[in-house]
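To fix ideas, we quote verbatim one protein's residues and fold tokens.
>
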Amino acid sequence: MLKEKKQDDKTKTGIVIPESADIEPTHMGEVVGVGEATSGKVKVGDTVIFRTHMFDEIGYNDEMYRFGKEENIFAVIS
């Protein structure tokens, strides 16, 4: 289970990135839960990169979360 992190719409050098630049958007999120069938490579608290269309979205307590398979995570950042 992932909680999506808001991404900057500006680069470190100040260039504004328009929403139209996201052809196949990848997003960052924090892992807030893992199932029993995971490999152990992704742990609660990790920041990961994923594509939104590979994960289902659900709301709970006014927060939005994403659910999907561990194999659909592109990278673990921390």
Notes: The beta strands are 2-4, 26-31, 47-51, 56-60, 63-67, 73-76. The first strand starts at residue 2 and ends at 4.
